[in-house]
Amino acid sequence: MRQGVYRRGQRRHYGANGGESFHHLLPPMKAICITDEIDTCDCCGRTDLKATVVMQLSDGGILHYGRMCATRNSGKTSKQIKQEVFAEEARQRNRQATMAANAAALAAWEKDDFNVKALEIQRRNYHQAGGQQIHGNFPDWLRNRALGLSA
Known about the structure:
Strands 1-2-3 form a 3-stranded antiparallel sheet. The longest helix is centred in the middle third of the chain and has 34 residues, at 78-111. It is built from 5 helices and 3 strands; from the N terminus they run βββααααα. With 151 residues, it is mainly alpha-helical. The model is unreliable at 9-21 (pLDDT under 50).
């Protein structure tokens, strides 16, 4: 049978099922989010879409595809794209939570006058306990004390 000629009832298969596949020619894409702010597909030009999938190319470029174009051009199923989006949203939430915790710690440190007073008290305790002759250098003594390794 010639290529491209199919019997009645026969379907064209793509990818892992055999037949023609072009996904290896496309750059790898990653689904970032699904948004309704942009309603035009960058692939086919269709407008008035309910939502578009924001796809990030391996070189950092951003494309807005309709859901069907996203599945066709990425070589992924709709379910895989949704899973990528949920995973990316979870990474962003974790990143934001970490940044908020770091900002809170920095604010507390700045509020406590950069904790210089506490550091001065620790340095005084270090020298009263014998200093470098007994405990070694101050940063190591402070770290061991924080870890509970020395009194």
